[in-house]
Every structure is written in C-alpha cells, then in structure tokens.
Amino acid sequence: MTVPSPSSGAHDSSKIVMPVQCCVHTNVCTPMECVEQNVKQYLGSLSKVQYVEGLLEVPSSMAGVVEELRVVNLCRDDLWDQWLLAWDVTWQIRAFQLDDDPAMSDDEGEEGCPAYSEWTLPNRAFHGSWSSLHYDTGVKSRLLRYARSALSFSRAGVDSSLVCWNRVVLLHGPPGTGKTTLCQALAQELAIEMGGAREDETRESVEGSVGGSVAKGSAEEPPGSGRSTARSAIEAGSERSDPASGARRGALACETPPPSSRCRRVDDEAGGSSARPRTPRSPLPAPARRATLVEVHAHSLFSRWFSESGKLVARLFSHLRGALEDEPDAFLFVLVDEVESLSASRRAGGSGGEPADAVRAVNALLTQLDALRRHPNVMVLTTSNITAAIDVAFLDRADVRAYVGPPAAQARFAILASSVAELGRAGVLELKPGTLQARWRRAWGEREDSRMLEDGDEEGDLNRLVVRADYWCLPTGGACRLVVRADYW
Ligand SMILES: Nc1ncnc2c1ncn2[C@@H]1O[C@H](COP(=O)(O)OP(=O)(O)OP(=O)(O)O)[C@@H](O)[C@H]1O
Ligand SMILES: [Mg+2]
User: How far is the CA of 182 from the centre of ligand 1 (A)?
Assistant: First the structure.
C-alpha cells in the first residue's frame, strides 16, 4: 500500500527524486514558490549530481536570497554516492524561512516554573538537527514515514474510530542517544514539508496587492493568522514580539502569479524592492499551515499541593486544545520529554485507597490525550529513559514506540566525521573536502566492525569526543592528531 507523502508532488516516476530543502534568508519576502522555481531552474542546469545527502553550493547569484540548499532524506540506498545525469533526476524543492524567535514560555507551572516552552517552526533553534543525527537503525526514516502517513490520514479525513491512530510517538532508550533532539528535529522536518512559510506568502500577496511591500516579520498579525498558539489561548490579546525587520537582501521576482509563473532573478538593492511595482497575486491554493512546537516541562506540573498535579496537567492541555480550536489551520507538535514522570505506572503508585497525586496526573494525561486525539492538527511526541516505568495505558496510546539506542560503528563514525567537518568549516581544522568519507568508505569494505570509537566512549558522547581530543592534543601539535586518528580509516 502506498500512502502519498505530503511533500511528494506530481513527478515523473521514471526519474530519481532528489528532495532539497531551500532555506531562504529571513528578511527576504519573495514568495516561496518563486524561490523554488528559481532553485529548480538552477539545479536543472547542472549537468550531473551526486546522490548524497548534504549541502549543495548556493550560486553567488542567489546568495542574497538563499541561505542554504540541502539534500535530505534520500531513500534509494542502491544509488548512494552515484553520479546521476541531469535528465535522470527530478528535483523536489521545499523553500522555507526560519523563525528566529527564541522559545516563549509561560508561568503556569508550579511556583512560577514555566509549564511549557513554545517555538514557531521551522525555527533556527532546530536548524540542521535532523541532518546531524545519525542512526544505523533506520529510526529516522521510520518516524518520517509514520508521521507522513498520520498527517495524510488526518488531511484525508480518515475516521479515527475505524482506523485507529492517535498521532502519539514514544521514543525510549538510554540517556543521551538523541531522543529529544530527534523529536524536535522531526517536528521541524514536518513543518518544512507542510510549508510553514506559505501563510506568510498568502498574507504578503494580499498586502502586495494593495501596494505594500513588507519584509517578513514586520507585518501586523491579523486575528487568527496562526502566529501564536498555546500562548494566545492563555494570554488572549497579548502580542508576540516580531523580529526586527531588516532590509531586503535581494529578491527573486515572479512575472506572473504562481504556481504557473516563470521566475527571473532581479538584483535588488537593500530596500530597493519597495520602488518596484508589485504584481497583484491571488492567495495560494495550497493549504496555509503554520506549525508550532510546544515542549511540556513535565516536572513543573508536579505540585506540592495534594491533588493539584492532575489539575495542572488538565489545565495545560485544555490551553492547547483551545489553541487548536482557535487555529484549525495551524499544526501543533507537543513534546513531552521524560514522559514517565507524568505517566508512571499506576499499578506502582496507587495501591492505597486514595489515589496518589501521581496517579491523578496519569489519569489526567490519558484523558487529555484522548481529547487531543479528536483534533487532526496535533501530534504528540514523547521520550523516556525508563520504558518499564510507563503506564501500560499510555504505551497503548502510542502509535510508534521506537527504541533509540546507542549508535553502532557506522553511525559513530558519521557523528565524528560531521563534528570534524564542522571544525573544518569553522577553520579550527584544515581539511581536504571528502577525505574522511573517502577513506572511511574504502576501509569500511575491509573491516567488519570498528573498534576505534568503541573503546571507552560513552554513548551519546561522540560530539564531545572531538572537544576532548582537541583539548588533549593541543599541547602536542594541535588538533591535527584527531585527523590522523580519523585518517586511520
Ligand atoms: N545518534 C546521534 N547522532 C548525532 N548526535 C547525537 C546522537 N545521539 C545523541 N546525539 C547528540 O547528543 C546530545 C544529547 O541528545 P539528547 O538530549 O537529544 O538525548 P536524549 O536521548 O534526549 O537524552 P536524555 O535521555 O538524557 O534526555 C545532542 O547534542 C545530540 O545531538
Ligand atoms: Mg531528552
């Protein structure tokens, strides 16, 4: 059975799909469709391309608009590393702009501790997280496949009483294996696929049609624009701080309204765009969706007042539900880290007559999850270190229970290689591009397993290995010792 992915547009099935994420500078107000077309045109002009994930070079002519081009989520293992000719490839471009706002939080928790933090997605805080996570188990593609199916079920209006799905994910495993980061990155990835930036374009096209040319973030938010979710439910009327609007850095202009428009690039001077008359555009037909991530701080929902915890949980979730009802066009990701603290097994806690406060909290969480399920525009992502401590009723509600374990040798190398590459990018190390990967690949064929990274390295500590190596090696010839170690492969 094939479930259409939200990002899969119509394409020639005989061609090889290359999904590319195009991160557009925050203060550029060119419609994303237009950027996508320009990027597609540029990529189409390349004679050949290698089938690997990672950054693509941004041509200097686009540097004022495009911050980053990245190939992501390739799914054909058989093609990995191969060079493909232009006509074999179909580019699937998703342009988006990052929200630079830091997390907002409330003071609803116990003793003024914030009960949650909230980010508008895609957010700079999670930029690059998805690509930086390396697993050999296929957990990333499994999660993405599940989430895409769940979202397309919701979009298609599938009756959840006939096809049971709760849009609840549980990642469990030892500490430091990237569970929280994976949840945040998954939310960001889905937000990009859903096209979180589309709403701004729609708004901009309306503004454009009445003569305004406003840099992203400087527009006043119309009521119900989806700019804020949980917070707006709590603080009705309170305004969200907009990022300072910068000068436009350049623009890719559409000559005719999208999606059938052909685009050409114009080199705008900063601020010069306002002088150019804008062609009125009709609102985009694609569903306008804004995504938000709310990270629940489970520990702050525990009260020293008997029976209060259940109420705090219920209050928080009812705020979230209120936000979902207010903005049915927005999508909400709810991340509950260390969910065992809110969903500890009731069998262990409630053996007495009066249920303990923890049991009330579990009951409240379960009831609230059932209530959230009725909303098609929400996904709950949870993590836990201690799966055995979680209440079985909660486990039953999770559609996906994925074990996230310590990375095996291949992923360990990838983590180390990306850390070294980052040091190269930052100029701390001098690297020949591709050297590590080429050497590793050759050696990988010759060696069955790795010992280099297994001795004495704690799981999840590989990023820190580089820092430690640098620290150890500096007195005796600098960080190049680390490169020598990596060259061993
Ligand atoms: N497989 C991996 N690939 C790349 N980075 C990883 C991996 N596993 C962990 N990390 C990095 O380790 C750090 C810790 O990750 P994170 O906090 O998400 O782990 P966690 O599983 O949620 O831990 P805990 O159970 O203690 O909450 C992050 O910087 C993350 O990027
Ligand atoms: Mg965590």
Answer: 8
- Mean of the pLDDT values across residues 157-183? 89
Q: Which residues line ligand 1 (CB under 6 A)?
A: 132-135, 175-181, 383, 385, 407, 411, 415, 460, 463
3-state helix, strand, coil in the chain (%, to 5): 40, 15, 45
Pocket test for ligand 1, best of 172, 177, 337 (most atoms within 8 A of CB): 177
User: Is residue 216 scored above 90 in pLDDT?
Assistant: no
Q: How far apart are CA 370 and CA 62, in angstroms?
A: 47
Peptide bond preceding 243 in cis form (omega within 30 of 0): no
Atom in ligand 1 nearest the alpha carbon of residue 132: 4
Give 17-59 pLDDT, tens digit per residue: 999 999 999 999 899 999 999 999 999 999 999 998 889 999 9
The residue among 204 and 418 whose pLDDT is bigger is: 418
Per-residue pLDDT of 362-385, as tens digits, reads 888 888 888 888 888 899 999 999
User: What is the reported pLDDT for 345?
Assistant: 60
CA of 175 to the centre of ligand 1 (A): 8
Interval between CA 189 and ligand 1 midpoint (Å)? 17
| Structural contact between residues 270 and 249, judged by C-beta atoms closer than 8 angstroms | yes
| pLDDT attached to residue 392 | 87
| Residue partners of 354: CB distance under 8 A and separation at least 6 | none
pLDDT band of residue 126 (cuts 50, 70, 90) is very high
Structural domains of the chain in order of their starting residue, each with its CATH number: 1-96+247-285 (no CATH), 98-195+289-403 (3.40.50.300), 409-487 (no CATH)
